[in-house]
Amino acid sequence: MEGVLEENSAGAGALSQELRSRRVPGPHGEYPRRVLIIGGGFAGLECARRLSNDRRFEVTIIDKTNHHLFQPLLYQVATASLAAPDIARSLRQILMKASNVTVLMDEITDLSPEIHEAQGKSGQVYEYDYLFLAAGVQTSFFGRPEWEAHTLGLKSLTEAQGIRRCVLSNLEKAELTECEDERRRLMTVVIAGGGPTGVELSGAFTDLVHRSLRDDFRRIDTSDLRVILVEGSERLLGAYSEKQSAYALKRLEALGVEIRTGTVVADVTEQCVHFADGSKLEAAAIIWAAGTEANPLTRQLGVPLADRAGRLAPEADLSLPGFPEVFVGGDLVSLKDSKGNLIPGVAPAAVQMGRHVAAVLKEESRLENTRFKEQKLELRPRFRYFDKGIMAIIGKNAAVVSSGKLRLTGFLAWLGWLFIHILFLVGFRNKLSVLLGWAFAYARNTPDTRIIVQKQE
Ligand SMILES: Cc1cc2nc3c(=O)[nH]c(=O)nc-3n(C[C@H](O)[C@H](O)[C@H](O)COP(=O)(O)OP(=O)(O)OC[C@H]3O[C@@H](n4cnc5c(N)ncnc54)[C@H](O)[C@@H]3O)c2cc1C
Q1: 156 CA distance to ligand 1 centroid (A)?
Q2: Which of 249, 261, 333, 362 sits 20 to 30 Å CA-CA off 128?
């Protein structure tokens, strides 16, 4: 069926015509509900999985890439510890056995909730009975879009490979150059943002240059690579306890990372970061891990936004105010838990939201055939967030874990981090490949993913 759908791409609307004509009525003459899921990340994929093989629904999941990406391990692709295929899996493959789910690769560019339609970059128009918008977030430059051209982000596989390519190429150029100033610039990495991404990246870079690449070069000492982590507030890992932040700082400093807290970036120009205090740093690699904003599609729904980052504030059942058939979930949502705390943008929260939306749709379909049909909207269950905690790794052998009243730091936390990440990685092959890769790298200190793949011009 997918093959036929792919071939049938002649003109806008052709696909939805095709889908319409195939709809097979159920035993009571009712048609399956068309569920359109935008985004095959943690929230969207979980929703599709939960609805899979349920004949009451005809699900279409659309993603601009062809894979589900395990973002928590992106920093290991960026720092040459893992290969890209280890942390991503084809959506088609994951949903292969879900016969009521169609996977399409397209980028949704327009939403028209009043007429229940979404339009893709391909020109296709997708009609739906229910929409689940789970398109995640993107890097934010705080109103300075021109900084994007001078920085490297870490949100996709392409970006992770871009960071790896940049840092490894800079080391090669540093080995070549005779000019000391040039070498210093090539061997400087600035990471803006002292949250989990910045902390994990900086720790992993020091591992790379102090251990893995230590014996590979002859003219440069890779441990001379300066990794400078810049954070605007007074401490790293703001979501963790002060003690854990202090631990992360001490640990990173011991690994050789230069840390500048309370340092605000005022401007970024080509290979140069300018700070609010008037100082500047020249660096051939500037990584931007300082902020995110919701996918721009949230601005097309015509509902008030929850914050300046464009996040949406859904009702308690995760539907949008005024649009009970439109659900939102994952990182692009701003919602408080039962204790009044903002639900963090983490994978478990996204998974729970995807699961909740599927449960609401199933319950609503069940109520359709009961005397409660008219009250189905009022009877929708509220979303309840189960906080499993947060964790960040700090180089080899150390991590911080914060879960309920539990606060862990050090080796035990690191083991917990490894276990949880393997557990949640999608697909047995990926789990095995990552586990073997880690075991090999741990024992030998030599990851095999340091090949520079040039960017296609
Ligand atoms: C570097 C990094 C490290 C992280 N580490 C952790 C961690 O250790 N633990 C943790 O719990 N969380 C971590 N997170 C956060 C976690 O990855 C997110 O909370 C989670 O991915 C959110 O899921 P989502 O479904 O909302 O969005 P995503 O997983 O981002 O999925 C969104 C999907 O939508 C697709 N999409 C976007 N726009 C369009 C469009 N217009 N049309 C079609 N498709 C589109 C994207 O291709 C993507 O597949 C990390 C994130 C990053 C970036």
Answers
A1: 9
A2: 333
DSSP string of 233-255, one letter each residue: SSSSSTTS-HHHHHHHHHHHHHH
Cα 111 → chain centroid: 22
Residues 6+ apart with CB under 8 A from 216: 222, 450
Q: Encoding tokens for residue 169?
A: 């190429």
> CB of 196 within 8 A of CB of 417?
no
The pLDDT tens digits for 156-173 are 999 999 999 999 999 999
Q: Whose C-alpha lies nearest to ligand 1, atom 33?
A: 39
From the CB of 40, is ligand 1 less than 6 Å away?
yes
Architecture of the domain made up of 145-290: 3-Layer(bba) Sandwich (3.50)
What is the CATH architecture assignment of 2-139+293-375?
3-Layer(bba) Sandwich (3.50)
- DSSP single-letter state for residue 340: S
The angle formed by the CA atoms of residues 113, 114 and 116, to the nearest 5 degrees, is 55
Cβ of residue 107 lying under 6 Å from some atom of ligand 1: yes
Residue 400, strand partner residues: 392, 409
C-alpha 435 – ligand 1 centre gap (Å):
22
Q: Which two three-digit tokens encode residue 321?
A: 């105010």
Q: Does the active-site annotation cover 200?
A: yes
Residue of higher predicted confidence among 70 and 19: 70
Contact 20, 31 (CB under 8 A): no
Which ligand 1 atom is nearest residue 354's CA?
A: 25
Model confidence, pTM: 0.92
pLDDT tens profile 52-65: 999 999 999 999 99
When mean pLDDT is compared across 13-27, 208-222, 262-276, 289-303, the lowest value belongs to 13-27
357: exposed, middle or buried (Cβ count in 10 Å: 0-12, 13-18, 19+) = buried
CA of 99 to the centre of ligand 1 (A): 25
CATH 3.50.50.60 maps onto the chain at 2-139+293-375
Note the pLDDT tens digit of each residue in 327-364: 999 999 999 998 899 999 999 999 999 999 999 999 99
pLDDT digit string, tens, across residues 250-286: 999 999 999 999 999 999 999 999 999 999 999 999 9
> Rounded to the nearest whole angstrom, what is the distance from the C-alpha of residue 331 to the centroid of ligand 1?
7
**pLDDT category, 24, cuts 50, 70, 90?**
low
Q: Atom 28 (ligand 1): residue with closest C-alpha?
A: 41
* pLDDT at 450 (0 to 100): 73
